[in-house]
């Protein structure tokens, strides 16, 4: 909720490969209401939302962000079975590009300005991290916040010696105060900036503060968050975020009605693409033409289609340029139906060879971390066996806390969200979570303050 009198914060939800939506939201705010971003007290983010928040605070250019996201989509879709292919390593991709794109003083730029949501493996509690001592710590925190167990790997990464996984598993839309936080999500639900659901179904699903409208559009987006669609569809989702932000600004009186007549770059006529008949039948259907706004045109409600003339020419130009860059000649050949059929027929022969090569590369890269990971695997095995024995014989064996200290060469300095200033995270309309006692029992006390 936007409250100018009490100040405000922004929270970007985790959404996997749908991070293009956050790019559209930030682009609209920077162009039409820059004070909302400039005067925000705090940014929050989980998973891809944390990635976008850090990229914005570090001052990365729009074309750079779009370029990195497009390369990630291309890498995921270049394999025959997509993100399930053993050679696709999202963690290595993120770590490499974060080290390459983030400035050397990234930890100074974001410390105290953004809270990254993490899920501690030992007890499943949510941890918010906001203080960083080096660029490497920023990268480690972001990798931990994006790590989905089994989808990204078996051994979770560590931050300051403690193992963490995707922050969306414990708190997908973190905030301190719901009344002063602008929540952003590409899923239609109880968020400030989100798509409007066209379904009349009033069912909602609430899990780890992930409150979404139960409809076919959200089911499709949930699948695409893990298995990315074509770049054109994600470009349309980016435009959708821009338009949803305009609606939010108008409803809250932050800015007046959007100015019409924003023209596209020379050689690209937006009016022609809008006047042409739609060539798709549903939001998730692949586009057959080059019009970048087909999916947006179909997903908008009838009374919102007039705002299509207000799209940012800069955003449209960057997206169009990136879509054309990804349309290589070799890709057009590989996307032909005969070539696709042939690739799937040969999959039983090619997949074992590619899997063996990927396994050898993983083992070589894993060698420096083998001792630490082996210790953690032993600890995890002991904890699992203890839980099983406790469930089988509850009276004969005392229960061992799941949050007992993990073996690590370094002491953990991470603290649970309940120790942060401003109180614990709030669920909407509910009291505070009260995790302080449980956290103090499982971890030694540390100095108060935000990490």
Concise overview:
The chain has helices at residues 20-32, 34-38, 48-57, 62-77, 90-101, 106-110, 135-146, 216-226, 231-251, 270-275, 294-299, 313-326, 329-334, 337-345, 347-366, 370-392, 436-442; strands spanning 9-12, 43-46, 114-120, 126-129, 158-159, 162-166, 181-184, 204-207, 210-213. The protein has 451 residues and is α/β, with parallel strands linked by helices.
In helices, the fraction of residues equals 40-55%
Question: First CA to last CA: what distance?
Answer: 26 Å
CATH topology heading of the domain at 8-256 and 307-336: Cytosolic phospholipase A2 catalytic domain
How does the overall form come out from the CA principal axes?
A: globular
> How much of the residues is beta strand, in percent?
5-15%
Rg calculated over all Cα atoms: 23 Å
Q: Mean pLDDT, as a whole number?
A: 76
Q: Examine the secondary-structure arrangement and name the CATH architecture of the domain at 8-256 and 307-336.
A: 3-Layer(aba) Sandwich
| CATH uppermost class of the domain at 8-256 and 307-336 | Alpha Beta
H-E order? EHHEHHHHEEHEEEEEHHHHHHHHHH
**Tally of individual helices:** 17
Main location: other
GO biological process, one term: lipid homeostasis
Subcellular location: Lipid droplet; Membrane
Protein name: Acylglycerol transacylase
């Amino acid at each position: 909720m936007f409250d100018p009198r009490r100040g405000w914060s922004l929270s970007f939800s985790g959404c996997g490969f749908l991070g293009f939506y956050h790019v559209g939201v930030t682009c609209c705010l920077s162009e039409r209401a820059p004070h909302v971003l400039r005067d925000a007290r705090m940014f929050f983010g989980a998973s891809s939302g944390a990635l976008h928040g850090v990229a914005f605070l570090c001052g990365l250019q729009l074309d750079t962000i779009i370029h990195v996201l497009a390369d990630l989509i291309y890498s995921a879709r270049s394999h025959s079975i997509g993100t399930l292919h053993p050679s696709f390593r999202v963690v290595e991709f993120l770590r490499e590009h974060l080290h390459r794109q983030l400035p050397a003083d990234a930890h100074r730029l974001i410390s105290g300005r953004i809270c990254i949501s993490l899920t501690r493996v030992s007890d499943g509690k949510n941890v918010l991290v906001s203080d960083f001592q080096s660029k490497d710590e920023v990268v480690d925190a972001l990798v931990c916040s994006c790590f989905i167990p089994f989808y990204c790997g078996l051994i979770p990464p560590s931050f300051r010696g403690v193992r963490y996984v995707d922050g969306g598993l414990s708190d997908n839309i973190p905030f301190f105060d719901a009344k002063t936080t602008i929540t952003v999500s590409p899923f239609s639900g109880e968020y400030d900036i989100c798509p409007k659901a066209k379904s009349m179904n009033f069912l909602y699903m609430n899990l780890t503060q992930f409150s979404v409208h139960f409809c076919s559009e959200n089911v499709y987006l949930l699948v695409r968050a893990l298995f990315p669609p074509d770049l054109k569809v994600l470009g349309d989702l980016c435009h959708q975020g821009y338009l949803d932000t305009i609606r939010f600004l108008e409803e809250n009186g932050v800015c007046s009605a959007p100015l019409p007549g924003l023209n596209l770059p020379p050689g690209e006529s937006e009016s022609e693409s809008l006047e042409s008949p739609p060539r798709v039948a549903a939001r998730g259907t692949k586009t057959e033409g080059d019009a970048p706004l087909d999916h947006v045109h179909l997903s908008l409600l009838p009374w919102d289609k007039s705002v299509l003339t207000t799209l940012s020419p800069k955003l449209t130009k960057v997206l169009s340029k990136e879509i054309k860059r990804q349309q290589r000649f070799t890709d057009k050949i590989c996307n032909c139906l005969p070539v696709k059929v042939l690739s799937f027929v040969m999959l039983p022969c090619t997949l074992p060879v590619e899997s063996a090569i990927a396994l050898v590369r993983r083992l070589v890269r894993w060698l420096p971390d083998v001792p630490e990971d082996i210790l953690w695997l032993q600890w995890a095995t002991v904890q699992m066996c203890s839980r099983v024995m406790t469930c089988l014989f509850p009276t004969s064996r005392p229960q061992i806390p799941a949050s007992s200290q993990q073996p690590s060469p370094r002491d953990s300095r991470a603290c649970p969200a309940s120790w942060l200033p401003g109180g614990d995270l709030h669920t909407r309309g509910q009291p505070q979570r009260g995790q302080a006692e449980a956290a103090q029992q499982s971890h030694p006390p540390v100095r108060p303050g935000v990490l």
